[in-house]
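Figure 3 (text version): structure tokens given as input.
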């Protein structure tokens, strides 16, 4: 029996730091108008800025569109949380 494993797909498309379209989104862990924490196919992604809001969200398709002024994007290192003993929130609030 051949098992067809779907390859991990994740992309970011930002336009003028005002609109961010993301694919490969598994979950929106938390969000407010200054910060989003997402679980993506390739790890946790932090997005920071001002006046951020969700324009479109479809978790079945893994799509998210965010509008606002984007000032920061960072992926959390997937292996470091278990080594340091800190969780995701511990890393965000050093």
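Below: residues designed for each position.
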């Amino acid at each position: 029996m051949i098992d067809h494993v779907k390859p991990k797909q994740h992309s970011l498309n930002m336009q003028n730091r005002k609109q961010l379209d993301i694919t490969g989104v598994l979950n929106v862990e938390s969000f407010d108008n200054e910060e989003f924490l997402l679980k993506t196919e390739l790890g946790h992604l932090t997005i920071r800025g001002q006046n951020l809001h969700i324009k479109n969200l479809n978790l079945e398709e893994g799509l998210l569109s965010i509008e606002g002024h984007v000032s920061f994007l960072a992926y959390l290192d997937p292996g470091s949380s278990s080594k340091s003993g800190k969780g995701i929130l511990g890393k965000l609030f050093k």
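The longest helix spans residues 80-84.
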